[in-house]
Amino acid sequence: MKFKRTLLAMAVIAGTFGLTGCDEETNNITVTHPNSGDTLPPVEEGDKPVCPPTGDEDCDDKPSTEKPVIDMGVHVPVELDGMDVTRYVNPFIGTGNLGNTYPGATTPNGMVQLSPNNGSNGWEYISGYYYHDARTSGFSHTHLSGAGAGDLNDILVMPINSRSDFMINEGSATLNLEASHFKHQDEQATAGYYKVDLLDYDITAELTASDRVGVHRYTFPRDQKSEIIVNTGFKLNWDYTSDSFIRWDKDNNRLIGHRLSDGWAASQKEYFVMEFDQPIKNVRFAYYDKETKQYVNAPADFTEIGSIKGSQTYDAINDRDVFGKYQYARAYVEFDTEKQGLTVEAKLALSSTAIGNDGTNKAPLSGAFLNLTEVANKNFDQVRLDATNEWEALLGKVKVEGDEAYKQTFYTAMYHAFLGQTTHSDLDGKYYRAFQGRNAYPKGRPSWGKEAPLVDDIRLADANNDGVADFTRYDTFSLWDTYRNVQPLASILTPNALADVVLSMLSYAEEEFTPLDAEGNAGQPRKGRLPEWTFKGNETGMMMGMHSTPVIYDVLAKGILDARMTELGFSQTEQDDIKARLINAMVTDARSGSAVSWISEYEKNGWVPAQLHDVEADAYGKHSPFKDSWTASYSLEYSMNDWMIAKSIALVFGEEDSRYTEFADRSNNWQAQFDFGGEPNTPWKGWFKARDYNGQFIDKNWVDPITDGTAGKNWRPDMFNWAFSESNGWQYFFSVQHDMHGLKDLMTQVDRKSNPDAKDGALFAARLDEYWSTYPDRNAGDNQFPVFNTGNVGQHVQGNEPDLHVPYLYNYVGQPWKTQAAIAASTNVCYDNTADGICGNDDFGTLSAWFVFRALGFYPVNAGSIYEIGTPMFETASIDVGNGQSFNVTAKNVSRDNIFIQNATFNGKAFNRTYLTHDEIMYGGDLVFTMGDTPNKLWGAAADSTPPDTGIGEFLHADSLPAGAR
Question: The Glycosyl hydrolase family 92 N-terminal domain covers which part of the protein (predicted)?
Fold first, then answer.
């Protein structure tokens, strides 16, 4: 069910932000556009929200107040034992359009994501499944949720019989796949369970999972030949199978094998053991013939296929694992259905370390064999119930009551927020060590044919270095996205797991590796870096920033790491050592000589300089005239990272540590990108812009001092701009989360250059008003806004990360009622309960976690212990914060119309602040709002109600600050 878009909030925003035709006497800020040829494009008539009520009169676009019921669309709702809040989870939300989520079975932060694959390449198939493609080519065991780049989909399993020969062969010869059509009305999914009927074969497929094991159940009809295909050669998008191996262990009715791959993850290892509950009749093998470019059957007497030392197909001449003849291996596992139908259950355990020891030779269980014990002596239904119970325990920590359709969106969003930070270590704490990607290889990955060898360095999740595993090693860190809200949500609901995430980050930084040159020759060993965008033990180098730092600061500031280390039995000396190592890892990354992009230039200049290409760009680089396209974004984000480092140093060593002063001062480098004056005769003063090596801001008339070239366009904040990541000058303007008061003060001084009587924060508020009421220029000649620049309310993009915090910023200027309107409007353009119901890439739950916080009524604009008040969505929300305590949010009279806070109390006392602290939440308490459909402009408006000033260090433009500012 789609929520109606034209809600009251849109109307209020129109009046609030001074659009043409709206006139509110109480709004004393007048927004004018610069009087020049660079004026912003007009808002199309059909895009203009109507004016809001200014009193008690009604508004034409108010939605119906009729409560919608839970609607699974064409899908049959899942009703299974143990379900309470999980009955609201609809994993199909986000599987269409741009969400890039998957509907299959997994557990919270599980290693296995067992989910269907359509069998096609393409950006819409990043997760393996695109809702608007009603074909299935099987079910693979690893998937990315909401990402914008493609990999994984390891070890594809597909049940077939002789009733059909339907094949998919799109995008690559190796995608020659047995497949089936299906209907969405025959699909079911909830947290930890998926079911579909494969129409071409009349087979019912069901999936569930434990943390490290995918469990299949296939119900076959009577047929002369029924098989389960195990495909280690299946690959999608950026992925590439570098080596595969499958062996039929006849004596134990199972398969063992591996899939090694190179792609976005440059060195991925997946070892597996797959056991069946029904006797295997026969196994035939197939491989991809490179000469004929088709799959062919291996000799009938083969009991294994692929490349492993001692195997039938090992390259004994070279005595090493190579891309050999028998690759992209498939096994066709046959079961006897000639006389009657049969239900087959199969369990497939994964490991990054090894197939392992099965315990028969008196050696301890290890690798995939060890992980298989998670589901020992359990059938499909028991594993499914365990998965349901895991999700119930997590999602049930928050109980909400109110709008039923919103409840479905809410619990699905919570579910999506815990699909990342996936388990990487085996049950014994062992894992495949970090592969540092571009740190190890000049071009980001090894040259083809120079993949890492099969036998690799195996590490132990041992934070205190005593030789005993003590934490769960996690991976899949999409940190440019998730630091904003996914990890802060985990800090409330799963603090121990978040502490283990930080210990995992530390292990990434400390794991030594030997870098290779472009020819694969070894260099000197060196240590790695903190994660940037990692999965399956691989650093990809995607996006920018050092965004492990806000996560580390978060667990330090909230006492989460201390509590976890105490629980693990670490001595005080060991705890102090671990925290010192974390500080050292952050500081090392942030100084010249590290593998962090442009950090040397940033440290030298205080900003990352932009320049045009000085040599012919490669195919990827040609999309931009600049050598690196995001230089202003780098500077803004590194400045925020510096703040996190400084604050962490202060917590661990105190402010007297010289490194605190160093990074506190560097945290003000965001100001180095701030152009006070603008080019002569242009109106754009007081904006963030790119700068070159000479310190000149890149505006119209700019000439690159390195190449003498020009960028070829004027600068306007509404245009797509290469200085900013995936956005424009508007959408990155408020990216100073760590010093929002500093930005407000700096803008006040800009304002006073032309108006000495300008009030504190007036330009900041006016800039916000204009942000919400003007639109990006998508008609510029070099418009390259990404496809996920969606969910627009004015310049605001709810479908991408840079400005997710912006709706909350009116709290800084005493206008929280505008924040409440902006939040409601942002919600309405991005979320609904359909497959298309997430308006952009969910990025491992980032857009979803935004919705969770939004619904609860508060949000973490910056890492640390402060949450900004927004507007609650439910009549009641109760958060289990542990130790028998709960934090309860009540919203009296709340509805889709009643979005404005009239008054509030906290633990029975009047509450007028527009922020909460983490301790106030975790100690438990009762926050009660009274809601209405018109703003109370007095609530939260006092100067002492705004969020606290968090700026530190020496302000670069201290002489330009208004009186009373930092």
Answer: 88-351
Residues 248 and 252: their CA atoms lie apart, in Å, by 9
Residue 857, in any domain of the structure = no
At residue 451, the pLDDT reads 41
Candidate from 112-121, 348-357, 632-641, 707-716 with smallest mean pLDDT: 707-716
CB 128 within 8 A of CB 156: no
What letter would DSSP give residue 45?
A: G
Domain total in the chain: 1
Which CATH number do you get for residue 236? Answer: 2.70.98.10
pLDDT of residue 68: 34
Alpha-carbon span 207 to 218, nearest angstrom: 9
Q: 573 phi and psi, to 5 degrees? A: -65, -45
Q: Is the pLDDT of residue 362 over 90?
A: no
CA end-to-end span of the chain: 49
Cross-strand pairs, 110: none
Whole-number Å distance between alpha carbons of 958 and 752: 15
Beta strands in 83-187 (DSSP E): 105-106, 113-117, 135-136, 138-140, 156-161, 167-168, 177-178, 180-181
pLDDT of 794 reads 94
Q: Is the pLDDT of residue 19 over 70?
A: no
Q: Name the amino acid, one letter, at 111.
A: M
Better-predicted residue by pLDDT, 729 or 680: 729
Residue 411: count of CB within 10 angstroms of its CB:
23
Asked whether the beta carbons of 610 and 633 are under 8 A apart, the reply is no
* Average pLDDT rounded to a whole number, residues 255-262: 92
Token code pair at residue 547: 């965004």
Complete DSSP assignment for 651-662: HHH-TTSHHHHH
**DSSP letter at 186?**
G
Whether 205 shows a pLDDT value over 60: the answer reads yes
Q: Which of 49-53, 99-103, 343-347 has the lowest mean pLDDT?
A: 49-53
Q: Which class for 619: exposed (0-12), middle (13-18), buried (19 or more C-beta within 10 A)?
A: exposed
58 occurs within a structural domain: no
Instruction: Give me the half-sphere count of Cα atoms (radius 13 Å) on the Cβ side of residue 537.
Output: 29
What's the average model confidence in pLDDT over 812-821? 98
pTM: 0.90
Say if CB 626 and CB 611 are below 8 A apart.
Answer: yes
pLDDT at residue 813, as a whole number: 98
- Give residue-wise pLDDT tens across range 819-833: 999 999 999 999 999
pLDDT score at 887: 99
Residue 835 lies in a domain: no
Tokens found for residue 402? 């109110």
Nearest CA among 490, 494, 962, 477 for reference residue 757: 962
Strand spans (E) along 428-575? 430-432, 458-460, 474-475, 477-478, 533-535, 538-539
Report which DSSP code applies to 525. Answer: -
- Structural domain boundaries, residue 90: 85-395
> 196, 95 in Cβ contact below 8 A?
no
Neighbours of 816 (CB within 10 A): 29
Of 281-295, 800-814, 920-934, the range with the lowest mean pLDDT is: 281-295
Alpha carbon distance 475, 533 (integer Å): 9
Sign (positive or negative) of CA dihedral 290, 296, 301, 302: positive
Q: Which residue is associated with the tokens 């870098």?
A: 515
Helix H or strand E segment including 274: strand 268-276
CA distances from 491 to 552, 557, 642 (A): 11, 11, 21
In a domain, 921, yes or no: no
Distance CA 809, CA 767 (A): 11
